[in-house]
Design a protein that fits this description.
The protein has about 200 residues and is mainly α. The chain contains 8 helices and 2 strands, in the order ααααααβααβ. The protein is about 75% helix and about 5% strand.
Length: about 200
Amino acid sequence: GFFLRRVHPLARLLANGLFLTGYVLVTGFAASILRAAIMIMTQQTARALGRNDDGPTALALSALLILGFAPYENYSAGFQLSYCAVAGIYMLYQPIGRLLKKLFKPLADSLAVTAAATLGTIPVSVGHFHRLPLLGLLANALAVPVSALIVLPAAAAVAISYIHLPLAAPFSWCTGICVRLMMGSIEGVAKIPGSVLTVAWPS
């Protein structure tokens, strides 16, 4: 936050590295978490060294490192969805944003990110699950803002639980409310007739 921005770049890099390492350990080494952690550290290292940080390069490096240690992750739906979503954002966010430039900027930015990630993951969704989410953009547009609200109380609950478990209860309760709200919005969209198109596997 504000404090970290005022300290030496290398100290900030070390602090962020320790935090991200702890977060990865707590969340169980999911591919999407590892990808995000490696990308953040790659980009922050570049800044600390006075170099330009490049998102696609960080994305490629994270894939190289993960696959170097776990090659079969390449066949995991979660791995593919995570990388296709981020690649979609890098490639499609700006073009979609230009189409939405007449909208309120925060709304346009949110919709552009959601649309880019959704379009990027369509090939994986069809390939693995044989389902094309026709209303995926709507579901994501409803879920993404709520998912952002989950991170802080969830992180607080985990951190405080190591100090005194009962104190974490209010944060866990808030996290549960946000999760139920997010899942409810997704399930509501899924119940709309024609929201998903089943795609036959080519024979």
